[in-house]
Protein 1
Amino acid sequence: MWLKMFEPSGPTTCLVMKVSDMEKELRQEAGKLLEEGTVDYIIGFAPGSLKFTTTPLITEDIDEINNLVINPFINNNLAKYLPEIPGRVGIIAKGCDSRSIVSLIQDKQIARQDIVILGIPCSGLVDLKKVEKLAGKERDKIDDIVVLADKVCITAGGEKKEVPTTEVLFDHCLGCELQIPKEYDFLIQEPAAEIRDYESSSKQIQELKKMSPDQRWAFWKEQFGHCIRCYACRQVCPACFCERCFVEESQPRWVSPVSQWQDNLIFQAIRTIHVAGRCTDCGECERVCPVNIPLRSLSKEMYDLVGEMFDYKTGMDVNAPALMTAYELVEAEGLIR
Amino acid sequence: MTITQIKQRKKDLDRENNVYMPHIVLVDKIIEETPSVRTIHFHFKDAKLNNEFTFESGQFAELSIFGVGEATFCISSSPTRKDHLECGINRVGLVTNALHRLGVGAEIGFRGPYGNHFPLDLMCGKNLVFIGGGIGLAPLRSLIWNVLDNRDKYGKIDIIYGARSVSDLCFKYDLDTWEEDKTLNTVITVDKGDGKWRGKEGFVSEVLRDAAPSCGNTIAIVCGPPIMIRSTFPVLEQLGFTPDQVITTLEKRMKCGIGKCGRCNIGNLYVCRDGPVFSYSRIKDFISDEY
Amino acid sequence: MKQNTEEQPRIVGFLCKWCSYAGADLAGTSRKKYPSNLTVLKVPCSGRIDPLFVLKGLRLGFDGVLVSGCHPGDCHYQTGNYRARRRIVVTKKFLEYLGVPEQRVQASWVSASEGAKFAQVVEDVVENVRAVGPNNLFSDEG
Amino acid sequence: MITKKINKKDIRKLLGTWNQECSVIVPTREQGIVEMAGWDNKDISFLDWYRNTVVPPKACFLPQSEVMISFQKKENGLKIEVPQDEHKQIIFGIRPCDARAVAIIDQVFADTYDDYYYSSKRRNTLLIGLSCSNPYDSCFCTSTDVNPTESEDVDLMFMDIGDEYVIEEITSGGKALLNTSSMIKKATKADINKAKEVRAASVDKLKKKVDTKDVDRKLQSCFNDIDYWEQVSAKCISCGICTFLCPTCFCFDINDEMIKKHGARYRGWDSCSFRSYTKMPMENPREEKWRRVRQRVCHKFEFYPMNLGINACTGCGRCIRLCPVNWDITQVIAGLPGEISVHSGK
């Protein structure tokens, strides 16, 4: 009930996903699960308290099911919550979320039979930072964002602007590899629009690779000077499920808890390596960073690295072993003498 | 809640003194109490400070090893015995492990004393029951010696002390002295004795119930691990003690020791600034929940 | 283990106790000469080597890091080094991407009988690391 | 009381004069992050784009990390030094919500023991407020007793009335800053009337409201309502954004570090959202997430007012705007069960 206090004005139309029909179907299915007692909780998205935002909805209350929404702002990777919620859980999953869920199952953090996956097709999510830049106005000063398959109309301060959809979607969405969940118990049957731009999806990585090692190091040094060590990147990441993170260890103290660029960089570098093979390139770490560190340029590189070296795609197959628990007799030749 | 109120409360910001700067103390002596607890005796490097330094039973200090860190310890020696200071150190973390590696003569940092102290004026003329568990004897010991050094000011004294096992009993030399002292009633218990143990067995709360000290004109002082504190309060209540008659000293994670860094609160009370000594009546509402 | 604080460049080596460490021993007992720049840390298995060790070594000012274990197939614990291999190559590649010169982090398989190989590996590592100069990665200047 | 005014065109010159005597700190944008940083002596474009900083101005007094004591291993023992920082600074452009927050933290650091590191910076700083007429949709300062165009917590208060700023002189230190300058004119009656209009309009722009009356009492009565706290904390991910970027959160951690022969004792921000915050070797009094969420809300609206007489929230809205999961403190406050519904302790 307390979600309804603020009525944010969401996007008026959205043709990329036939939203209202999908929402109806989803609510029906989720409601049934709760009602029949198949699950104890439903995890999904509800309208946020601010314009163009959504918020995770974790509920056992059937009355709240009508708050479930689907729109191009359902950013969070809800798989994050699965290990901490007891009982059987019904979870609304976009393609990338479903990969994280599968990865958690592969890592034995959750059991497949405890999870009911309600898959939804996803054509990509809107990156508000990009919209703000295009509109020249901050989020709360934008009146409307209408997302169509080929173009997006942004209305702000009486001005209307039309741009190709590729210009407002998150970078990681432009490189999406799974729009419709492969692993699901219920799927909303609706095709997703293929909106891709692989080149801009990893543009910064390509630029970094053109630099010399010294220049790259200087780049990251500068970036991690901004880091405030709020650990939002770690906390929001479904792959970071350790009970106790190495940064909290004091004996030995691997990384200083003091925020200085050296230790900030080590923290993030190790975090990225530790989630190798678990990272699904959902882009949450970069989205939540309050100081805009391009974290995806680290995680995506790692994602590509394990993809190339071990021909491994995270979260595509529940029965496959997790990357770091498996091996081939001959692989990665030439790197170790 | 207006801004004028803020200004009234705002104190002079111009004092020069840096409370975070530790004094240097030298380790005189190390006593291994149990496999994981040692007591260190120390004095200030600065002779002047040695004379001027005063504290009260129940107060604590921040000991530090430069380059390793700071940790909080209560002062376990009595203010009535001035030749040196003592702290009991349980080896559990980064700093305490480093303190366990020190030898005699080492220089460490000391800042304090901080916090409030046991209300000696309130205890004066009353019967006292000391209830301690494990390393929780350290703050009590400061008070017990303080009281024993002024024995005639107090009535009947009971000491009930327990530890997990015989080898976990701290300050055995003191326990022996107290057991021999005919003006005290000392009961020592262990959760589970070894073959040679001839004292009591069982939890402190159970032994307390059996000993059943009278609540008339009596104050009970409790210190030990949270689980012991939690189980002792109901027994004291059964024995007729009112919450005002029960005093405890609490331990929480602390960093600054002076009410600023934020983490040691129980409700609106900061253990470092408003405590560590509390009457049970003051913390009753929070204690079951967050301690 | 005597820690070497004098020779430049300084290298820290994480050696698996069953193979590489024994290999280092053999190099010693058979009087093979190799540079004394190496500070050796013994680990139970190359599978124990966390990427943290590598970065911590660099953070503490070592100019290079060597990790070494049994040859694939020879692991005392059957599969430890296979798993280590994935982790090590990922770490190596990723640090390169961050801007750590590849010479600073090196890996090798050395068995207990390869004293000569061990000496050669150390010699090569020292030479490679010397070529990229002292480790200023974590200094505030520059 | 508004007494003076200055033409907008003269602001650069005014800041320039000040910058000769002490460092002038202004809102600065780097990589899309706005924070208070040293002024480059030229650029005053922030007057056009600046709404509020991401990193609150508390960072000027309680930096994200600072050296408390530095040590150096020498042959004859340890050399210990305390960094001295007595440089004078002016923070230009602080918003009334953040200025109130500074006044709130001032109390903590002056309480009982004076905090050397905080107060040595604080006492050498003058705050110059800038009225706010473009609030975010997450701002709710009018609900926490802050007026977006007025402040008593600064030394000078500037208010935008179009081509000019009218100025309130709050402290003698602030007054002295204006004495030396010929650009400062006397405010006319018309200016003051204009200011009144702007004030009313600015207050009107704050649409987000929450009733903070009786919150402390409500919190007291639902302290043990575990269902409520579990429900509202469910989506929290326990990161440190809301606390680190809160202008009134002051919790810190102290840590030592030693690499080779050099080391230091650092102090840095800490957050009650972190599980490690209260962790002790044997147990953790706030292990569960709902306890940590409860601590944050209760500290702001119950414990702080109990101890120091004022709510420790100024409605700046940062924690709402920046939260990765849109955890909205106003909803939690508004949703508090009205009357006592106490559950048994554990």
Protein 2
Amino acid sequence: MFDWLTFITLFPIIGVIILFFIPKNNGTVIKNIALVVSVINFLFSLVLLVGFRANASMQFEINKVWIKNLGINYHIGIDGISIFIVLLTTFLTPIVILSAYNVLKDPTYKDKAKEYMALLLILETAVIGALISLDLILFYLFWEMMLIPMYFLIGVFGGEKRTYAALKFFIYTAAGSIMMLVAMFVLYMNAGGVSFDLAYIISHVHLTATEQGLLFLAFFIAFAVKVPMFPLHTWLPDAHVQAPTGGSVILAGVLLKMGTYGFIRFAIPLFPKVAVSYAGVIGIFAVIGIIYGALVAMVQKDVKKLVAYSSISHLGFVVLGIFAFTNTSMTGAIYQMLNHGISTGALFLLVGIIYERRHTKEIKEFGGLTKVMPLYAVIFLIATLSSIALPLTNGFVGEFLILSGTYISRVMQWSSVLTIFAATGVIFGAAYMLWMFKRVMFGPLTNEKNKNLKDLNLREFTYLFPLIVMIFVMGIFPNFFLKRIEPSVNSFIENNINTRVYAKNSRVTLKLTKNQKRSKR
Amino acid sequence: MMPIEPGILEQLGMIIPLLLLVVFASSILLIDVFAESEDRAYLGYLTAFFLFVVLIFVAKDFNNNNVSRQIFHSSIVIDKFGLIFTGIFIIAGILTSLGSIDYLKKYDIAIGEFYSLIMFAITGMSLMVFSTSLMTIFVALELMSLPIYALSGLFRVNNRSLESSVKYFILGSVASSILLFGMVLLYGATGSVNLVTIGNEITTKYTNLKTVLSSDPIIIIGMLMVFIGFMFKTATAPFHMWTPDVYEGAPTIVTGFMSVAVKAAAFATFLRVFGLSFNNDALLHLANGAISNTSWIQVLNILAIATVIIGNLVALNQRNVKRILAYSAIAHAGYLMIGLVGYFITKDPITYSALVLYFLSYTFTGMGAFIAISIFEPKDTNKVMLDDLNGAAYKKPFVAATLAIFIFSFAGIPPMSGFFAKFYLFKSAYVNAGLHIPVIIALIASVFSVYYYLRILVHLYMKKDYGDVDVKDYKTTAGSVIALSIAGFFVLYIGILPDQYITIIKHSFLSLIGG
Amino acid sequence: MVSLNLFIALGIVLFFIGLLGVLIRRNIIIIMISIEIMLNAINIMLVAFNRYKFIENNDGLTYSFFIIAVAAAEASVGLAILIAVYRKRKTVFVNKLNTMSN
Amino acid sequence: MSNNKAVIMNLLPLIPMFPLIGMIINGLIGKFLPKKLVHLIAITALLASFTTSVIVVSKLVGLPEDSRSVSIEIFKWINVGSFGVSFSFTLDQLSSIMLLVVTGIGGLIHVYSVGYMNGDKSYSRFFTYLNLFIFAMLLLVLGSNMLIMFIGWEGVGLASYLLIGFWFEDSANAAAGMKAFIVNRIGDFGFLIGMFILILTIGNLDFNSIKIAVDSGIITGTVATVATMLFFVGAMGKSAQIPLYVWLPDAMAGPTPVSALIHAATMVTAGVYMVVRLNFLFILAPATMTVIALIGAFTAFFAASIALVQNDIKKVLAYSTVSQLGYMFLGVGVGAFGGGILHLVTHAFFKATLFLGAGSVIIGMHHNQDMRNMGGLKKRMPITHWTMLIATIAITGVLPFSGFISKDEIIWRAFASHNTIIPWINYVLWGLGALAAMMTSFYMWRLYYLTFQSGETRLKDHHVVEHIKESPKSMTFALVVLSFFAIVIGWIGLPHLFYHGKGIFNSFHRWLEPLVSESEAKIHVVHNTGLEWTLMIVVSVLVYISFFWARKWYRKEISVNTKIWAEALKPIHTLLYNKYFVDELYYWLIDKLILQFSHKVLWKTIDYIFIDNIIINGLVAGGSKTLGFLVGLFQTGKLQFYAFVMVAAFFFIFYFMTL
Amino acid sequence: METFLFYFLGIGLLTTAGTAIVLKNPMHSIISMIVSFFFISGLYLLLSAPFLAVIQIMVYAGAILVLFLFVIMLFDLQKSEYQKDKFTKFDIVSILLVGFGASKLVALVVTSNSVVNFSKAQSVSNDFGSVKAFAYSLFGASGVIGQHSFVFEVISVLLLAAIISAVVLAKKRL
């Protein structure tokens, strides 16, 4: 049957090649082609969704030998966990490309449209590749490949200190993932030195406790840098502040998810015992991330930095959800990954719009924009509400599932205390987002320059509208998504946590409620 | 392996590639003499063509004869190991000759000798790799070095170029004489200069390092002298000091050729010499059979780690691009050395093929990078500072793009061949040879290397925009474009599908043991 | 009777004298001469070994013959470099030639 | 009988659907429609949902007494693993009352705001937000599980945020809106954790499954206490009780109909509704009940004391609302769930009248809200004057009016119900209740006399004074209807003290009987009609004294001795006027604790200095650069030095090998 | 007699080599170098390698050092020029290092058994060091490749390369 996954991964590259032949100066043709390519790629990914059956098995699986001598094979596939993140990527890329139309108008980038579009498309390929690969080295290959386009996006198209931010981004991730490579060697060696295939290694590896601990730490650091988790997060604000709008939307929307996805796909299945025994500690770091991110966001002067710190806080929730190891919390975590991609993506697009008009990101420069840009205000409000998890928006479903799942988790130590502290994030979230919204949108229109700002034009509305629709659709009809995510999560927890860690088949993850107990008796 | 003495003609038949090289080198000279037109560009293309012809012969040899035979009284052996490395030298030669057309035109040096010297150097290198006796190695070493001394001093009008050739000449001669001194001592102890006989003599006479040291230290001193000779040529840690100055001073194209081909030749010969004659347990094991931690492999290991660290650290705050690439060459020599130690410990096809794959990838990456840098070199300065590259990407997008590919391949970032080369090397060293600490140090050091590699890209892409890039004389003709596209293509191709190359290389391993 | 190790000792001492010459003197000519000394020392030892230990063939002799030839080649290139340096820098002293450093 | 159920089933989802449709239409294309059409859409939406709720409630009345609870599931919202939540509505006795109150008063206020807002330019936006509020409130009321209630809960929070900050040009309004939302959010935090506890213990959040769990003893005392305490935190946030009341006075920044609808009648009562809805859970936790009662009583007293000295008419009414909510919680706290709901209903009507009256006064006075410049509006705005008078009488609790019935019921139950934890608590509760009642009547009559009597209007601007005239018909119509109910509505809940029959008069308690009787029975109430009469008389006397006192001071021109008294009570006055400096305390707390801390400590030191400068740029980047520089020093460029290093290395290695 | 001859030649060689590297004036050191070559050819004769002795004088001394002389005369260094080549502190360190290292090395080598107690075999086949032996090894006998003829050919290529390099380096205008 036609190998859709590889097709979707490589289709953007075809787009890049087509772009290659177009002369540099007619920017619009380049932009349109890039848009068409990305939209087509999104439609093809919908084919994936249609063909996806809501069960726990790995679907669209291809397993061909790639490098026999090194034991690396081209083993790809998606299941409930990764399908929607792939869709998120293909969904966000056309939006970002559409949003980039007038970024490329200002003189400094006038005939660099081709590079900008090519970088975005390559980024899409790398991310989808990483999401679908089930071979350790194939994943590592796409994981590192993601760095190049993002580096150039920040470095060439960024703000003043772009080179510093781009370099910091690159080295942070590269340094983090070096130890993961060593860990992969050890795993390969321990599993008999035959292949780097994930399933093969999981079934054939038997490590001592200390080895498992060290290797998990190596994987953990690599993914924690990407998430980013508390102590390793200082690259994110710099990267976001300097990155162009499109770059930071993709960075926040998709690249950050690679960290959390990495936890679920690689770190936990490989070392379930360690993951469970350290779940509490990781939970603490996640909660620190939530509260720290929220508090620091509150005092930011720069809108983009504020949204950057807010995504640190949101991803803290996701990590908490993952390491609670209950099916509600993990499904919620995966769902929250999608929500964060959409709501923070929308926020960055909106910040980008006012940046394009006023060329400043300082909050005090704005104020009372609602009078001048009402439609913009409505969309900004909806995005803010989704970001602070108001019910009937997508944020609420994710956060509620994570918090309720974490609360009832018996695997993670101190899970109830952590949930309470994490729930305070809901308050701080509302505080800094609404305070920012008030300072930017409400209040008197004093600043002269804001007086004649134009409201959203049609193009801007067209790329924001799908996000708004998704916010409500995912808020009101989450079952469509949850139905597909859940079976994979159940089987994940079943064979990674219940059987391999607790080795007895008691449904340990969920504290047995009394009436369930009674019904069981 | 049965040394046989077929007739002269048949023996000559086996070394056709070498002969062809010499013939072509001299014919280039003749053509140059009779040519009237001032412009010598066509010579570049001609050399490339000649080298390509030789490459075909090498490939033909590689496919049919599977048994390697020692000829000319076992002074050389024609085996797949030698053929593969000759192939690498020839590829480097082709890229150099194509890349040098523009470069020499920029410095308006119109001499044919440049190309013939390149050819002679390649002959020297392949002879070195084929030889199994120390004497042939010495002569071949000289045949390789003399043209390089001349080439590095090509810009007589530029102080740095002269200085680099003086330094290279004097230190090179001292190193060769130390190598000779070692040879003499070994000749004294074992009665022959043939590597295999030396090896057998040592194993028959002595059983472990302690007895060798106590009874016949001359062997150890001789071996050490040869070791030092090679350490100089491969620019390993304490003996690397000449590299930055020589690479910075020499013309960029020659630096490229030196950093890729000369280094590869030195490594290959070192592998052959120490693999055949000194890799026996007499020199490695202590009385109680355990591997002694004062054996030469241990020394090599320590030097390798030192090279990696020095190479990466010092490069961090260099401003001259050629000097950065010089230190990066040292760093890569360090990684290769770790691979070599891995090979010596295990002597299995995996570590061997990792090593050779790294050379293949490094050839394309190194040559490509230096050709691209040579295009960006401002006229008559023989110096490429980081600031000379500012905004160059918008003047020459193709050249800058290929340079970016090579830079990422140096840094070992996935789609480029550098990633798989580095990955395979470190995997074989870590998994097969058990060199845990050196690999971890190397990996950490390679993260530092990302910093100074990306600095080049920063200046290329991020420092200036379209408007304010002043017109520089970066004119490129077909030669360098072809060279860059060949190098770029292979860097990407090996990066994505390295499998068939690894199998070819593994195939060549069988003959090495027989040698 | 003169035994082998005397010759070898002589060769080694001569070799190190040559090496010392390279390290001490600034003048390139003298350095080249010391390199020649080192090569001669090697020749002496070669001949000595061949004469005392491996009398049946004269490999040692032919090697030293080759070494003389190679030394000649080296010397010619060395002097060519020296001329080029002198013509440009008007000096033959090596410590003047250190424009390149970190 | 079964077709009644069927009718309810398919009509019930329509009720919230109408305001939703109204909101969507007004939201999307309201800006382009003429003003008339905009408010027409909004009002018809409300009217439709009111009529359907009347039909539905009448059908419910038709059902037999014990099965008056119909629920319908529209679609499955979230189900993950064992935890399942679906969008489903339930109509039972309690929600029917709330339904009528919300749609009824909502409708009237929509009519009223046609007049009030006709000058405003973002007319359609106002009605969109109003419809959004009604939709959210209906969700809250009709929701059959805690999560749907939570959706409504936060939905009304959002609507109040939008409506308070309706005139966003003035940053004070926007700040008030934000403050309201954040304080509500703090309450919702408690609500959320409570829900998690329920999920932990019984696996889902449906009200009837909670009831089953309570009956079957799955939910023990401790779990119930913790859960109910947390739910009460949520209630405190939403219904502005002591610690979290600060947002309500500032919420007056919104248009007056908003204050009337949201901050008097419906939203703020959500907390009380939730407690009554979960009465079977709260009853299990006597500790929480005591806390609720205490906080209720104390809030009543505290808010009333502040209202005494406020000069802004809307501020007085705001603090009066806080105090009346305090009463409701007092009632519910002591177990008088029915009494609490009754007071909720009566309060909804007379407080709405008061607010709308204040609104028309403000319109009349051209948006001047300070009572000190009002006075003498009796003859200029007769209808507003009479309706306000009726509502004032009702709120102060004079016999025939509704206020007295419900408030007195609560005060009596406060005294009569026996508290297991602190036996003497009921005296304190009664005392606070009585004092609060006294203060209520004082500040209400002070408001009445200052605005309508005490001589001529003291407003400086004579031009405005001439033009004060009665508000248009749409406003006065709502006032008249509401004031009528302010009198009448109390009668349906007459306590058995006055009326023993089965008639309409105490139908309210009988109506709520099946829901609350079981838990109310658990509280031991003293039955001593004589005592009940005496206490009632004592309270009425207190009310009359403060009425007389206020009348003496404020009826004529502000008399000379009021000034003497004011001087004497100066310190207390300033304390009360500045609202016990609570707002300043909160601001200092937030500013110092959170903003400064996170700016200086979290961001600047940890993030910026510690991680970035010291570790990354300092040790890693800086360290390696200096190291590289040091190692680089060896590169002297002198050839002899290199040769020397080579020879030295040779000897060193040689020495090493021969070790 | 023979030992006397060895010591005479040996010491002569060492002293002349020493003076070659110590003397300031390059002319003087060249001359002392030529004298040392005479001592070396004497040693070769001692070691019964007459052909080599002759080659040493003709090729080494005659050709290579004469080349050096031409080059030096080409530069006609003034006295003041090469006087500047003074000893520095650094040289003393290297002298000490090399001296110590050399002595240790000699001590070790002299005692190692592949060197010690080998006395000269009396009778030497007549063509040991002779031209005939050389011819056989270089050019091989009737149809059989000589033992070292391959290396011989390579050296011819090497010389060609050396000539070209020298020309390239010495050309006035490229």
